Amino acid sequence: MTRFTRREFLASGATLAAASAIGPAAFAQTPGGLLYKPEAGAKLRVLRWKRFVQGDEDMWMANTKKFTQLTGVEVRVDNEGWEDVRPKAAVAANVGSGPDIIIGWFDDPQQYPDKLNDLTDIAELLGKKHGGWYDVCKRYGMRDGKWIGMPLGIVGNALVYRESQVKAAGFDAIPKDTAGFLKLCQALKAKNTPCGFALGKAVGDGNNWAHWLMWSHGGKMVDDKGNVVINSPETVASLEYAKQLYETFVPGTLSWQDPSNNKAFLDGQVSMTANGISVYYSAKNSPDPKLQEMAKDIQHARFPIGPVGKPTELMQITQMMQFKHSKFPNAAKAYLQFMMEPEQYNPWMKAAIGYVSQPLREYEANPIWTEDPKHTVYRDGGSIMLDNGYSGPLGLASAAAMADYIVLDMVAEAASGARSPKEAAARAATRAERYYKV
Questions:
Q1: According to the lineage, what is the superkingdom (predicted)?
Q2: CATH of the domain at 104
Q3: Do residues 180 and 302 share a domain?
Q4: I want to staple 359 with a disulfide (CB 3.0 to 4.6 A). Which of 137, 283, 327, 420 is the partner?
């Protein structure tokens, strides 16, 4: 049986005080201490992204069953591919019907804030009970002082590599700087053990590393006021670097989506990629002795620091959105709170072996992060990541630019030679200006 610390399972002493301050009077009478009492006869439909780690889905469904047993609310959960969730959420928002709750990506709630219910009371309660939200989660989940999305967690992204192959290339560890990192990739290519990073329409893996690359050299989509500044010398420098990196890649990365690099790594086609913890999980839990042996050789590391001189990592935050078209808003809000409480959240995070890291600081103490040292690098996503709209405001423009893959397309065009770095940066600026209108 899984054991957790007292800190992880007990709510803080401020729970009742917080609830009385911001919750409805019915709080004390609701089952399980939920802030909202579900409507009589309520039924919910939840749309979420398809798992990469089986334990994630299994525990999510087990927790959902617990919610039904506690409240009597029947919940249907549908799982869709990562690339399919965003357009389905947009359709639901536009037509005013569909799932009650959709678990989507990045700042998607900022695209249709008027279609979403206010979750401020639940978010404030959870923050007071569980150590507070990371600042980046507040930026993603809030608009005009209100919570319009409930950050579920951060699908951590890190370098996943074969330690033996990195050492065979003459390196004891992943270099801490981008210049050394390029030399490593070139050495891996020379040893016929190339690396590979997604350049297709990959919601997570492609966007994550492409933004890191641009930011690491000082480039960014917009400045602090939302003016488009992507066509800059710093961005062009990052794209020149991308061209050199691309020469070390295994063929085919221009069409890679999120599952592609997992497969390439586990097939032995690449020695290094950027991914969540799912590659390690798959190898470690495979019945194939060769993959089990590979798992022993897998290591994880943070991305190197570029000329800008500080960490510049993007990871895909996933948020729960509760739509106004729901016929059972109280039941939906109760479900959101229930899934975020430690009795459900900690076992879920452990079952997924840390595939999703916490948005609430208290859950840093989950034993999953230290029981295997290879997990630890994924713990700190919320404390180190930048948001995808950096360094401007999050909102309709940043969400639309992200959904349009502007940065990822720019990197792919320049890296592959389809356009020169200057041409790619200029085209990205033109595309961005359609959304960031002064």
A1: Bacteria
A2: 3.40.190.10
A3: yes
A4: 137
Q: What is the pTM of this model?
A: 0.89
Phi, psi (deg, nearest 5) at residue 343: -65, -25
282 occurs within a structural domain:
yes
Based on the fold, state whether residues 163 and 279 are members of the same structural domain: yes
Residue range of the domain that includes 118: 13-154+317-368
With beta carbons less than 8 A apart as the criterion, state whether 209 and 245 touch: no
Q: Give the model confidence (pLDDT) of 264-311 as tens digits.
A: 999 999 999 999 999 999 999 999 999 999 999 999 999 999 999 999
Tell whether 125 is covered by a domain.
Answer: yes
Residue 409 lies in a domain: yes
Domain count for the chain, please give it. Answer: 2
Question: Which residues in 132-171 are b (16+ Cβ under 10 Å) and which e?
Answer: ebbebbebbbbbeeebbbbbbbbbbbbbbbbbebbeebeb
Q: What does the alpha-carbon distance between residue 156 and residue 381 come to, in Å, rounded to a whole number?
A: 6
State the Cα–Cα distance between residues 438 and 431, nearest whole angstrom. Answer: 14
Distance between CA atoms of residues 38 and 16, nearest Å? 20
Question: Which residue, 77, 375, 26, 390, is CA-closest to 224?
Answer: 390
User: Which token pair is 175?
Assistant: 């270099």
Mean pLDDT of 153-171: 97
